[in-house]
Amino acid sequence: MSEIKPYEERMQKTIATLESDLATIRAGRANPKVLDKIKVDYYGTETPLAQVGNITVPEARLIQIQPWDAGVLKQIEKAIQASDLGINPTNDGKMIRLVFPELTEERRKELTKDVKKKGDDAKVAIRNIRRDAIEAFKKMEKKSDITEDDYSILEKDTQKLTDKFVENIDKIVDTKSKDILTV
């Protein structure tokens, strides 16, 4: 039924947000997505790091940032140091290198807990969307916009949709956790 469509779209956005959040968590090897949230002061404007230079991953644990304008090297370095990345950038005057150390077992477990928490937060968001949908359907039934049978069908369909998305979240979290825990 078309009444469910907007709620399904909201649930899909929740999944997309979870996936983009998890992409910024590093899992042993260098991933340029960890730099997505870093903004650089580029001539007075806060600019995403990806927009001020070329980001490459020449080795499994190395990210290189080659700015298009060498004058912005210091600002990139400052932005990385100010971030929660926990990696000290190396500046050779032409580019910045980020060497990612091997993750310790303890750090891997911390990251896995963080992944699970993000997954739990996404599940709460999905359940809140389900609650919103069911409340909206109850109002529609009270106004006689839909029948009692329609309400029952919508409620069951919404629950099926919720279960599908929660299962999807579990798979995403499991995949990311395995990715972090494998050396």
Structure description:
A 4-stranded antiparallel β-sheet has the order 3-4-6-5, covered by helices on one side. The mean pLDDT is 88. It is of the alpha+beta class and 183 residues long. It is elongated and about 70 Å long. The longest helix is centred in the last third of the chain and has 38 residues, at 105-142. The chain has 4 helices and 6 strands. The protein has helices at residues 5-23, 73-82, 105-142, 148-181; strands at residues 39-42, 45-48, 53-59, 62-67, 90-91, 96-99. Helix content is 55%, strand content 15%.
Brief summary:
This protein has 183 residues and is α+β, with helices and mostly antiparallel strands.
Helical fraction equals 55-70%
Number of helices: 4
Poorly predicted runs of 5 or more residues: none
Instruction: Tell me the radius of gyration.
Output: 22 Å
State the order of secondary-structure elements, H for helix, E for strand: HEEEEHEEHH
Main structural class = alpha+beta
Q: Looking across the biggest beta sheet, what order are the strands in?
A: 3-4-6-5
Strand content: 5-15%
Biggest β-sheet description: 4 strands, antiparallel
Task: Please give the number of β-strands.
Answer: 6
- Amino- and carboxy-terminal Cα gap: 46 Å
Return the average pLDDT rounded to an integer: 88
The gross shape turns out to be elongated
Please render the helix and strand layout as text:
Elements (H helix, E strand, L loop, with lengths): L4 H19 L15 E4 L2 E4 L4 E7 L2 E6 L5 H10 L7 E2 L4 E4 L5 H38 L5 H34 L2
Antiparallel strand pairs: 1-2, 3-4, 4-6, 5-6
Helix pairs in contact: 1-3, 1-4, 3-4
